[in-house]
């Protein structure tokens, strides 16, 4: 299996938001985008480098990093993806759907 570069070094929890429903307030204009491939771009803080977004180019949704929120969100996990690449040091022992990729 070809190993892919890691984006976060560990689990990346995100929620998909329709592009038309996403508003980004960036008064200091520090949000930066990086084209990690021809199909995907990643948004991050231009000051600290924190991963904030993942978006397919031309897609209808943007994945927003749940770790970017300071307040309780009321959001719950819906599924696990890329479980074929999970580390051997944690278990997914819930009943949520699990997808290899």
From TrEMBL:
Residues 8-84 form the CENP-V/GFA domain. InterPro entries: CENP-V/GFA (IPR006913), Mss4-like_sf (IPR011057). The keyword Metal-binding applies. Keywords: Metal-binding, Zinc. Belongs to the Gfa family. This is CENP-V/GFA domain-containing protein. It comes from Luteimonas terrae. Transmembrane segments: none annotated. Pfam families: GFA.
């Amino acid at each position: 299996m070809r190993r892919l570069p890691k984006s976060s070094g560990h689990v990346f929890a995100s929620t998909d938001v329709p592009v038309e429903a996403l508003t980004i307030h960036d008064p200091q204009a520090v949000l930066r985008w990086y084209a990690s491939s021809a199909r995907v771009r990643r948004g991050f803080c231009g000051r600290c480098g924190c991963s904030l977004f993942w978006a397919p180019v031309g897609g209808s949704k943007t994945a927003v990093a749940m770790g970017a929120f300071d307040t309780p969100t009321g959001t719950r996990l819906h599924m696990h993806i890329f479980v074929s690449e999970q580390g051997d040091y944690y278990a997914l022992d819930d009943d949520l759907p699990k997808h290899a990729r």
